[in-house]
Amino acid sequence: HTSPRLKCGIASRSRLAKSRCCALSGDSPWWKMDQEWPRYHRLVELVCSSSCDIVNALCSLADVTEVEPLAKSLLAVSLRYGDVLAMVRSCVRCEFASNAARPAQIFRTQNLASRVVGAHARMIGAHYLRRTLSAVVTALMAERSSLEVDPARAAACDEAALQQRQGALRLWGELFLARIMAPSSVREMPREIQDLLAEIRTAAEDLALDPKQVSALLGGYLFLRFFNPAIVAPEANGIAPSSPTDDSRRALVLVSKLLQVILGGIPSPPDTHTHTTSPTPPRPHTSPILSPPTP
Questions:
Q1: What integer best gives the mean pLDDT of the chain?
Q2: pLDDT in tens, 207-223
Q3: Which among 128, 214, 277, 283 is least buried, having the fewest CB atoms inside 10 angstroms?
Q4: How far apart are CA 200 and CA 224, in angstroms?
């Protein structure tokens, strides 16, 4: 029951923090940030405080047009001067608190908390993504046959050809899933990501969600925010040495959308035409990649 005056004060302070955080980090190297430290030291202390009050306020106030540079700035400042994992944990808790009445929206919108969580995962897991996905992504980019299964995009194909493409797409989905869920891949997953999976599981269980909903949230974090962006843009994540062709990009998009429906109960977008090609997944809430980290 925050008073209107206090709300106004928090909003003003947070808007100032948004502009100053972006000015402090931006694309500047670390030495530039260190030079700016005397000017913004109080702001940095607020961002890196153990209470994460400013971070929580920003998660509530940031406009969708601001989240990309602001997420980058918060990660840069916290990584350099604070506890980045604590900051990301705070974003996770804020996301759950703001969507407690509508858990299906958690990590599904392009808000600040989702951006921070996804950018952190890809930053921490950059080497892991390259080790896990490079071989299979490169193989798919070398594939000459089209995987297009949307009849509107493949008007020249007859029913038999479409079924053949569905079978090929299903095979590629199985290959990607097998690589991601291989025991060696699960063991090598960065500890920070495992810790955040445990944090998400605990927050979901605190909302008394059923196992299917819990696995959907865990899958949403891992795939929507971690694996799929890297699969769709492999050149931006060091997974592929060059940009995919248009056909290869479309194939990567189709595989990423297929992965959404075969682990964690993530709904398939209506235009993917991948629901008929889905491999039979493991039971989501018993998948090893979604299990709590071992001590």
A1: 79
A2: 998 888 888 888 888 88
A3: 283
A4: 14
